[in-house]
Design a protein that fits this description.
- By secondary structure, the chain is of the alpha+beta class.
- The chain has a single domain, classed as Thiol Ester Dehydrase, Chain A.
- The strands form two sheets. It has a five-stranded antiparallel beta sheet. A two-stranded antiparallel ribbon has the order 2-7.
- Strand 4 and strand 5 form a beta hairpin.
- The longest helix is centred in the first third of the chain and has 17 residues.
- The protein is elongated.
């Protein structure tokens, strides 16, 4: 079933829902994550996104040790961010992440960080990962267990996430 990163999910419009769901993680801003003005230092927002991305990948077993054991790596090759407002020490944040359907073998996650109490948008962006084999070459058609896990990841966002409204 899986060709070009779960082609059935990524290419055939009948399976790609118009409103993808998202996964939500909660994080609380800790003292060591803020600058002298009590505002979250910009690079820490990426750590918050990694919490959500790691949680959702773990749900389907796409952990680094599995990838490594199968002879793959999955580097992030692009990361974008638009900062909209500041978060401060002790704020509770919601990190919402969703899979963006692609026509090629890559995982693109869109994310938004919002204040838990007000829903105010703090940051939004995207990350792009590709699959490399153990020789460092890009994998265009994952097979076997890796293909099954990627299909499970796609299905998770269709079936189990929260609504896309944020």
């Amino acid at each position: 079933m899986c060709r070009l990163c779960c082609r059935a999910f990524l290419v055939h419009s009948s399976f790609v829902p118009h409103s993808m769901k998202y996964h939500e993680s909660r994080v609380q801003v800790r003292f060591n994550e803020v600058d002298q003005w009590g505002i979250v230092w910009y690079a820490n927002y990426f750590a918050y996104v990694e919490v959500a991305r790691s949680e959702v990948l773990a749900r389907v077993g796409l952990l680094p040790d599995l990838l490594s054991g199968l002879g793959y790596t999955a580097p992030i090759i692009n990361l974008t961010a638009n900062f909209k407002s500041s978060a401060r020490f002790h704020d509770e944040l919601l990190v919402r992440i969703r899979l963006v359907p692609q026509k090629t073998a890559k995982l693109v996650f869109a994310f938004r960080i919002v204040q838990a109490d007000s829903g105010r948008l703090v940051m939004e962006g995207e990350s792009t990962q590709v699959l490399l084999n153990n020789k460092g070459f890009m994998v265009y058609a994952p097979e076997g267990e890796l293909a099954a896990r990627i299909a499970e990841l796609a299905a998770y966002f269709v079936e189990n996430g929260d609504d896309t409204a944020s």
